[in-house]
Design a protein that fits this description.
By secondary structure, this protein is α/β, with parallel strands linked by helices. The chain has a domain of about 130 residues: Ureohydrolase domain (Arginase, Chain A). About 35% of the residues lie in helices and about 10% in strands. It has 7 helices and 4 strands. The strands form 2 sheets. Strands 1-2 form a two-stranded parallel sheet. Helix 4 crosses helix 5 and helix 5 runs parallel beside helix 6. The chain is globular and about 50 Å long.
Amino acid sequence: MDAHADINTPETTESGNIHGMPVGFMMKGIMESHHSLPGFEWLDQEFYKTCRLAPDSIVYIGLRDVDRGERRMLRDLNIKCFTMYDIDHYGIGKVMEMALDYMLRNDRNRPIHLSYDIDACDPSHAPATGTAVRGGLTYREAHFVAEYVANDGNLASADMVELNPTLSNGSGSRETLELGLGLITSLMGKSII
């Protein structure tokens, strides 16, 4: 779940922000060596080669701010993506159904990790984040994602990122924190009934 693909490399980035590169660092077929990355000299090359993501092991949901280089990589590696256009077109229920069907296509019992960047949500609901982009998930869509994945039974782990209460005023910080905590409880199985 993210407004951004975070699949840039030092060569493709338009902004130079390293926080837009973590998937690019870890995706097979993009960077074959980490040695060009200042500060990553300590990382064992063999470990780096063996612990990378396969392009077909990831699904993006909620994309709406993607750099040119990232678009090319997403297409070239055939990475499954559902943008906000897809959510508007199909609805969040169908998008989640398609995303999990894709992830579980070879193994219905495969464990899933959900990385939930709070900027996937519209800044009207989650203003306390560093890279807010208008046009994101509504409050209910955001919860539906968490509830749907929890109900599926394959969720093995999750993380909530880029929630930073210092980046908004008091009410914006509280609203973002409450949404983040609510999403975490939904991921852990809390439901309406």
